[in-house]
Amino acid sequence: MECLCSFARREREPCNLRRTTTINGTSTTIRLSLILCLNRHRQRRLLLLNRHNHRPPPPTQPPAPPPTQPPTGVNGNPWGYNFVPSNLIYSPPASFCSYFSCINNFPNGRGYVEECQDGMYSKSGGIRGSCSYYGGDLQPLYSH
């Protein structure tokens, strides 16, 4: 709708105004259609024709998810192995001893992976005498 009153032509102001306001914590755009009129016999009047609440359009793209980091666990291992009880590790990957200090007999172990009292790792968890030369058993290592 275009305003044709002399005041609007002289001031070169459009009659359609938009104002953003906050109502109950929500940002809302209110559109006011105004006609500014000059009446020969009366003073200028401001007539409010309509009031329409208009919410801003939803975002066009959802926010990008945060980048995922590879799982790291004890000693920065890429498998996420840690000491939180879950699944015992009976078949660790071949590169296990690249991340953990393994005892010399580690590859020959027949049990699950555990940490010995001195910080070395054994694959004889659950078997009598595991870690016997390393201060005894400390705790099992778990996968998730």
Structure description:
The two termini are 65 Å apart. 14% of the residues are buried. Strands 1-2-3 form a three-stranded antiparallel β-sheet. It has a three-stranded antiparallel β-sheet with strand order 6-5-7, with no helix packed on it. It has a two-stranded antiparallel ribbon with strand order 4-8. It contains two helices and eight strands; from the N terminus they run αββββαββββ. With 144 residues, the chain is mainly beta. The protein is elongated, with a radius of gyration of 37 Å. The protein has helices at 6-11, 96-99; strands spanning 16-23, 26-37, 45-54, 87-88, 112-116, 121-125, 137-140, 142-143.
Layout of helices and strands:
Elements: H1 6-11, E1 16-23, E2 26-37, E3 45-54, E4 87-88, H2 96-99, E5 112-116, E6 121-125, E7 137-140, E8 142-143
Question: What's the quick description here?
Answer:
This protein has helices at 6-11, 96-99, and strands at 16-23, 26-37, 45-54, 87-88, 112-116, 121-125, 137-140, 142-143.
Helix content: under 10%
| Uncertain residue ranges | 31-52
Query: What is the element string, with H for helices and E for strands?
Result: HEEEEHEEEE
Largest sheet: 3 strands, antiparallel
By secondary-structure content and strand pairing, the structural class works out as: mainly beta
Distance between the termini: 65 Å
